[in-house]
Specification:
By secondary structure, the chain is of the alpha/beta class. The chain contains eleven helices and twelve strands. The strands form two sheets. An eight-stranded mixed sheet has the order 6-7-8-3-9-10-12-11, with helices on both faces. A four-stranded antiparallel sheet has the order 2-1-4-5, with helices on one face.
Length: 321
C-alpha cells in the first residue's frame, strides 16, 4: 500500500445560506469527512448532484475554508497556512475544471492561457515559456497552431485538453479533476480518459476524479469514495465496490447504470436528496432507503470496516471478522 499524498481528517465545510436558498440557515456541505489519497493512485469520488463532491475537491485544494478538521499534503498541514504560504502547494496540486470553456479567458489565446501559470510562478524566461507551452500542447495531443487560437475557435474536446495542459504547466504531483468529461460527447470522453491514463503512466501523477458517471469510475479508478449529503458513505477498491457494494445508496447507484445486456429499464433511485441545510435525523439516506429501520432514523451511522480496505457507514452493514 503506497503512502498518502493528501489526507483529510474530520473535515467539515459549512456555508451561510441566504433566505430562500435551501430554506436559509446553515448549509452543511461537508460533514466529518476523512479520506486519504495515495501517491500514484486514481481515487474517484462519486454521488448525485449536491452530494458534496465539488465542495470536497475545492476544500482539498484550500479554495474554500474548512469549518473544522485538517488537510495535509505530503505531511504538511494546509489548514494552518496563509495564502502566501500556500503558493508552493499551488504548484504541486492543480484543478481541472468541468467547464473548460468557462475556465479559459475568451480574450487570451490558448498559448497565453497555458503559459499564464508559468508567468505567475515566474518559471523561466519568455522564450522558455513559449517552448514549454509548445511541449505541453504536444503532450496533450494538440497541434502546435492551437496556441494562436482563441477558446471559441476550437472544439470542446480540444478545450478540455487545453485545461489539462494548463494544469500540467507547473509540473504538479496531484490533479483533481471535477467532472472533466461530463460535457463531452461519448467518443471524445473516451479519448480524454485515455489521455488522463497515459499522462498518469508517463508522469506518475496522482488523481482525484470527481464524477457522477460510474462508467468513468470503472475505466479510471483504483479506489472509490461514495458521497451522500456531505458524507462519505462507502469507500473501497473499485473492483470490490462494483462486485460487492455494502451501502444501500451505492447499490442504488449501481442499479441505475444502464447496461447493454439489460432487458429491463434501469432502476431509478426513488425520491430526492434532502436539503443540506436541513438534513433528516439519523442516517441521511433513510428517507429513500427501502431497508431503513427505526435505528436508521435515530442514529448517524459511523464508518465500519467491512473488508480489508472496504468501509461502509450503515448500521445494517456487518463488520469484517
Amino acid at each position: 500500500m503506497s503512502e498518502a499524498l493528501l489526507s483529510a481528517k474530520n473535515l467539515s465545510v459549512r456555508f451561510r445560506a441566504r433566505d430562500g436558498l435551501f430554506g436559509g440557515g446553515e448549509l452543511r456541505a461537508l460533514e466529518d469527512v476523512s479520506i486519504d489519497v495515495r501517491r500514484g493512485e486514481t481515487l474517484a469520488v462519486v454521488g448525485e448532484s449536491g452530494s458534496g463532491k465539488t465542495t470536497l475537491a475545492r476544500a482539498l485544494l484550500r479554495l474554500v475554508d474548512a469549518h473544522s478538521g485538517s488537510i495535509t499534503f505530503a505531511g504538511q498541514d494546509l489548514t494552518t497556512l496563509s495564502a502566501r504560504e500556500l503558493l508552493p502547494f499551488r504548484k504541486r496540486a492543480q484543478l481541472v475544471f468541468q467547464d473548460a470553456e468557462g475556465s479559459l479567458d475568451p480574450r487570451l489565446t490558448i498559448g497565453a492561457s497555458v503559459g499564464e501559470a508559468l508567468a505567475i510562478h515566474r518559471i523561466g524566461t519568455r522564450a522558455d515559456r513559449a517552448s514549454r507551452v509548445a511541449a505541453l500542447l504536444a503532450k496533450v495531443q494538440l497541434p502546435a497552431d492551437v496556441a494562436t487560437r482563441l477558446p471559441h475557435e476550437i472544439s470542446g474536446g480540444q478545450r478540455q485538453r487545453v485545461g489539462i495542459a494548463r494544469a500540467l504547466a507547473v509540473e504538479p504531483e496531484l490533479l483533481i479533476a471535477d467532472e472533466p468529461v461530463s460535457a463531452l460527447d461519448v467518443s471524445v470522453q473516451a479519448q480524454v480518459l485515455n489521455l488522463f491514463a497515459q499522462l498518469q503512466r508517463e508522469l506518475g501523477l496522482t488523481y482525484v476524479f470527481i464524477t457522477h458517471d460510474l462508467r468513468v469510475v470503472q475505466a479510471m479508478a483504483d479506489r472509490v469514495a461514495v458521497m451522500y449529503l456531505g458524507r462519505i458513505v462507502e469507500l473501497a477498491p473499485a473492483t470490490e465496490l462494483f462486485a460487492n457494494p455494502r451501502h444501500p445508496y451505492t447499490r442504488a447507484l449501481l442499479a441505475a447504470v444502464p447496461r447493454l445486456e439489460q432487458a429491463e429499464a434501469p432502476q431509478v433511485l426513488r425520491g430526492e436528496p434532502p436539503s443540506p441545510s436541513s438534513p433528516p435525523p439519523g442516517c441521511a439516506f433513510h428517507p429513500r432507503c427501502a431497508r431503513a429501520t427505526d435505528r436508521c432514523r435515530r442514529e448517524v451511522p459511523q464508518p465500519i470496516r467491512v473488508g480489508a480496505e472496504h468501509v461502509a457507514a450503515c448500521v445494517l452493514a456487518e463488520p469484517a471478522p
